[in-house]
Design goal:
globular, four-stranded mixed beta sheet, 7 helices, alpha+beta
């Protein structure tokens, strides 16, 4: 019995030595270590959430394409304001801008579902669709798939009930918008559609008063222009009287005061007169 206990102790001691040796072996330790998780992508929005977003990446080591706000998730700074852009194309009133100096972020390449939609339900061909059969009450009858894609479709908040889908979308070319003459308009140039009704805003946008643009701020310098639908949700532009079509954004924190300054009370010494 004593011999059995002695042999058991020797066996346990040897197993302990083997385990210790394996633990010290770098190759064994590396094999047993948990696999490193890939870094999580940082995505920030440029104008409104869900419309124009950009994924942070390095253009070159230590130089990111965008800096995102840790507070709001908005784009704060661009390493390359023209990253992922294409020329805007022909735009009346911008003839003086050199070719290629007005660029936009394309949307048409993101319409991955449109080709499928165009051949399954809205193909615009066949006895029932040539010409397209449209509801006489000008109210869409969305199926569950469409309602999931565009939740605002059943209660379109645009035009206060005076317009419907086919006033903006082409009846047979479902990956296109449409102008007043029935001609197709690219999803990359929604301003040509919106200007049908909002001519004053189109003029202000074209002149740089309305909207957003980044890049070279000389008069004919290269700029990226933000198009209408990057800031406005076309299916719900009536999002509250106060916001005038904008979902209110969380503000950024205030700027830091210079060192040694306790507050900004001095700015109240010369208030802006209220008229």
């Amino acid at each position: 019995m004593k011999k059995l206990a002695f042999h058991t102790m020797i066996l346990a001691f040897c197993c302990g030595l083997m385990t210790s040796a394996q633990a010290q072996d770098p190759k064994t330790a590396a094999a047993q270590a948990p696999a490193a998780q890939p870094p999580q992508e940082t995505v920030c929005f440029e104008s409104r959430k869900g419309a124009s977003e950009v994924t942070k990446r390095d253009i070159k080591p230590g130089w990111p394409n965008v800096k995102c706000s840790p507070k709001t998730g908005a784009a704060l700074w661009y390493g390359d304001p023209y990253d992922g852009t294409v020329p805007m194309g022909t735009m009346p009133g911008l003839e003086k801008i050199p070719a290629g100096h007005a660029v936009i972020k394309p949307r048409s390449e993101k319409l991955a579902l449109m080709p499928m939609c165009g051949v399954s339900c809205h193909n615009g061909v066949g006895p029932a669709f040539n010409p397209p059969t449209l509801p006489k009450d000008r109210k869409p009858k969305p199926n569950p798939t469409m309602e999931a894609m565009v939740p605002d479709l059943a209660n379109l908040q645009h035009g206060r009930g005076r317009i419907w889908c086919m006033d903006c979308h082409h009846t047979t070319q479902r990956n296109k918008l449409v102008d007043h003459f029935g001609d197709p308009v690219s999803f990359d140039q929604p301003q040509l559609l919106c200007g049908k009704c909002h001519g004053d805003k189109l003029r202000d946008w074209r002149d740089g008063i309305h909207g957003k643009r980044i890049g070279n701020f000389t008069s004919t310098g290269k700029k990226r222009w933000f198009t209408c639908t990057e800031c406005h949700n076309p299916h719900n532009v009536q999002d509250g009287q106060r916001n005038k079509g904008f979902v209110q954004l969380q503000p950024e924190p205030p700027p830091q005061l210079p060192k040694g300054m306790a507050n900004a009370a001095h700015e109240k010494l010369h208030p802006i007169p209220q008229h």
